[in-house]
Amino acid sequence: MGRFAEALRAPGLRAIAEVKRRSPSAGELRPDADPAALVRAFEQAGAAAVSILVDERFGGSWDDLRAARSSASIPLLAKGFFRDRAALSEARASGADAVLLLLRDLDDASAAGLLQVTRELRLDALVEAHDDRELERAVALDARVIGINARDLGTFAIDRRGQLELVSRAPVDRVLVAESGIASRAQAAAAELAGADAVLVGSTLMRAQDPAEKLADLLRRPLVKVCGLTREEDVAAAADAGADLAGFVLAESPRRAKAPLPVPETMLSVGVFVGEVEDAGTDLVQLYPQENGHRARDGTLYRNGEAVAKVFDLPWLEEDGDHWRRAADAKGRVLLAGGLGAENVLAAIEAVRPWAVDASRSLEAEPGIKDHGKVRAFVEAARGR
Q: How does DSSP classify residue 279?
């Protein structure tokens, strides 16, 4: 694999930021986009790579790729409708590290031939699929970097759920990129938890007042979870404050919810259980074992039955600090919970560097009823504001 693929394999969720002036589905996005300036800004904001549209239908050209190459050190993906060696050679000569190959437009023989050309030219290939059959073809072609596009290029409809299921079924030894329809941290996190190594984000960035800041915001960690929600108005307050995860306690508790409430697209829902799990239809499940009739301190976060994060609860209460160290030294994603509030969450983040932080009781006016001011203060503190 080349440096494009290696950049996407780095730890944590990576991002390919895309430069495009317009699209067939969204129309004009950023007609005056300056590729050189945008690539510099995206690199500073944490992009692992940048995709440059070189097709005139998207307002792009090879000059855009050359301009981007002149100002960036990170890998560049040339994105267009490539069907022959000449186009791939042009991409390489213009500074690309990788090219897009659309299985929708290529039969297996053509795709295999183009993949051979990429190897000869020392290019990586992002082989794009958008349904089961195309994913099977990508795997059979031994594509090392596979993009799963949530957008049907015929109808332009977005199917995020279908995308996540394809990502979760793809071989783990491939580099997986979730493409299209990602506009929030929660949507990016959903792709990450399904198994994506990276997300490709274009229209969302091009529409933003500050594209680089929007990219940084999509990648910002830790995620923030507000738990113990029982009322729709409290879910709305958490979403408005910028929380990413909405927690619904579905075990015996003063904060027990009758059922999970609807959440906006900017959030993922989390069902919290003790001992046994029921199918509540939430995006994620937070499960604590039962020990001696009580809830254990630590738990596990699951997606579709697969463990995706460790939950460490109240680690700072042990005087010897052993639990605190275990949270800080844990491998993989850590969700830090228990006793957090606006006054201490930043110190906890600095000590543990968790994937997500979680608060419940400290944000209440009374059990099960949130104080919206405390919710906002907690989210802002966790974001370092």
A: -
